[in-house]
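Field log, afternoon session.

UNIT: design team B
ACTIVITY: writing a sequence onto a fixed backbone
BACKBONE:
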């Protein structure tokens, strides 16, 4: 389900204009993003848990086998 489909479903379910449903979704997602940016854990019972994780950078190596082209 996309964000647009979710807004459409929300507007039908609660008899809201689609624009108002989109604003409501944007506000909810903004709150979630702000909490995650502060490294807060989000727990929505029956839906899921969200948290940011910080990983060390990995060193990468690219090995390419050289071959000649004719």
């Amino acid at each position: 389900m996309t964000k647009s489909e979710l807004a459409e479903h929300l507007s039908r379910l609660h008899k809201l204009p689609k624009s108002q449903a989109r604003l409501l979704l944007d506000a909810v997602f903004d709150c979630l993003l702000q909490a995650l940016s502060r490294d807060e854990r989000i727990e929505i019972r029956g839906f899921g848990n969200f948290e940011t994780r910080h990983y060390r950078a990995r060193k990468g190596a690219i090995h390419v086998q050289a071959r000649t082209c004719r």
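LOG NOTE: Strands lie at 42-44, 48-50.
NEXT ACTIVITY: expression trials, pending approval
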